[in-house]
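Dear colleague,

Thank you for sharing your sequence with our group. We've completed the structure prediction you requested, and as agreed, I am returning the results in plain text so they can be pasted directly into your records. Please verify that the sequence below matches your submission; if there's any discrepancy, let me know and we will rerun it promptly.
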Amino acid sequence: MERAREHAVDGEPGSPVRRPATADSALELLVHGVGGTTPEEMLNDPRTVRITGDATAAVFRRADDTDAEERPGDHRGGPVREAYVWCNLTSGNGARALWLLLLPFMVVNLAHWMRPASLGHGRTVRLYGLLVRLAGLTLTVLLVAAACEVALDLAAWQCAGTRLCVRNHSWLGFLSPDRSDAGWWSQPGRRLALASLVPAALTTLLWYLSHRTWSAYESQQPMARAAEHDEETDGTGLGRPGFWYGRRLVARLRAAHTAAGFLTVAAAVGSPAAHHDRARGGPAALEVLGGLLNATLVAAGAVVLWVVCRRGRSENRIDHGRDLALVRRLPLGSLALLVLALVYAGWSRPHWHSAGRLPGDATFGGLTLAQGLLVIALCVVARTLYRTAPRAADACRTAGGTPAPRAAMRGFAGPAVAMLACALGGVMSGGVSQRVADWLDGTRHSIPGPPVLLTWQASVIPPLLVVLLALIGWLARRTWQLRRREMSAVEGEYPGEAEDSARTRRIASTRAMAALTDRAPLMVGVVSSATLLLGACALAGALATGDAPSEAARGTNGFVHGAAETAQALGSWLIGLGFILFVTWGRRAYKDPAARRTIGILWDVGTFWPRAAHPFAPPCYAERAVPDLTWRMATWTRATGGRLVLSGHSQGSVLAAAAAWQLEPAARGRVALLTYGSPLERLYGRWFPAHFGPAALASLHREVACWRNLYRRTDPIGGPVRLPGDCGPEVDHEPLKDPLAYGRTEWQPLPAPVLGHSDYQADPVFADERELLLERLLPEVPDQRPRENAQGSSGRSSE
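Please find the predicted structure tokens below.
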């Protein structure tokens, strides 16, 4: 049941009831991490009550604590605990498992946020965002082009126009021109027009999902306040008023990408008909209409590019504006062009017969070349920004200067991830084309099959897997060496214990495996570089030979020809298997809650960021969660004047930091931050240095009342915050012991588990650190956070 609210504070809607102001009121607001949990588990009580929120995300308390502010004397032994549960934003129902098919869009959206931090260079920053948005646009066109390849080329053009293929697929019989009773749909143009409904429906579905998820997730308005943060000085834009409200940009990109999808389908339908009319000298009216249609499609494509390039995100204020009518009506205009293309292609052409392939090689080749050039341009821009990366502010005394940011791959993380997004798009488009071609034709070779470039791209999959296996072998060797070193360290941390080699090996192995997280930049760098190189080779081979690798290798020695045939067959099988795994995993997750939670964890990490580069990416849950946390903290501190500890585990610590940045400065200075198992620096600081780099984390340390961070060496996700100078030990606790006891003791009669990333609250240090934070928030203690002086430095008072 929900508690009723009596009246708002100061007339503000959504504020809790006014409570008696008391310095004794203390609240711990718990935010869980990836994978989700229940309020009963978070609060360690089977009786919990939802006090605010809905079925998607809500704040819970123990049933006995619902009116705790009215009884401050009952909680002198500790704070009142609240649990913010947001797991249904990502891993709630089975339908969201199908978002796995949107993985390339999510990955390219991550590349937008991975730009290096920089001082100045505003135009270069905007150029970086523009290049990523263009890469996202190529992925949309690639996905729709793959659907056109399957439906229009393989099914309607090749198979329906071949007697042997139709004989084995009777459901295509009504499209065949070789039957004695050939019907109205047997002409090639009409077959293409009918098949185009498949990619058109896919584009409509993507538009619908983007619009529906925005309404459900991203329409929550943040608290209105004046702009305060300047990315040039504090190193992050997460505190800007409009950062978590991207309605206008998502609507603009959605219109552009939807239009691009419809235009791609229109070009796939209309271009073959126009080519036939020009080549065969058809009626002059049809030839003129075909020329006008192609010119109009080119002009509409230019408008789409203009909309994508026109402007990026607006974060300095909550943007409620609307775009031009031209932008809003762009999808309808492109849909009208598609209808015109269908009418034009469906015009009677009795002497037109389908043969060979549709001109898909030029489309896929152009997309591959564009993506490669965009990635190379991103590398140049990212390197330029990385050279101007800011240092952490000198609010902390340092020895030997401030360290450089630990940006992943020295600033090349964004281009590398964009390359992986393009590779994933290629695997999905090539995989579905290869599998449908094999299904339609089998081993009969009755149809030409997919475009040559897709076959070349499939053929480079085996060499890429060889590189990947070599990298895995190297990492396994390094992990084994690290485990041997950790065994000596473990023995030194538990002196006087009876030696247990199996126990020591288990702890050391856990630490060594946890360290693999820090090797992720190397893996991404090697795989993306190999993908770029092999993709360039595939494009060059397709353009130079105009034939599949096995055919191009004819006439060479037997070894080369055999290797080409093996790579082509194995690659075709592997790329198709990759797509099937995507579909199978999504189907399993739809039925299996455990698998659904696993996929939910992927979205917890990947969809934290707003949709800035691709509107069809899975929705951003933080655009709901961060305003929720901000409103709750602001209204509670305003109503009670009490002390608040914001306690975040894993991904919850990232949400907690983002919410703290969104508070007013006065409220932010009355909040203590307790993070544990936190990826703030280890993952987000390295991969997203523009928003979580050393300068940004140092500014967060200066602005909240106090901050402590707990981590373990066995944790594969959490780690130290690594603030420079004196701030480092002030924030980071020394690594927690894990396990708490090496062997059996009086207090641990059974073997203590190796906890790794879980159960931080089971460690006695957790309660001690929380109590110290609450003591530092007491009003009797002098202000622990004097305002910065003219040089930007700040001090700390002793407790």
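Summary note from our side: The two ends are 41 Å apart (CA to CA).

Kind regards,
the structure core
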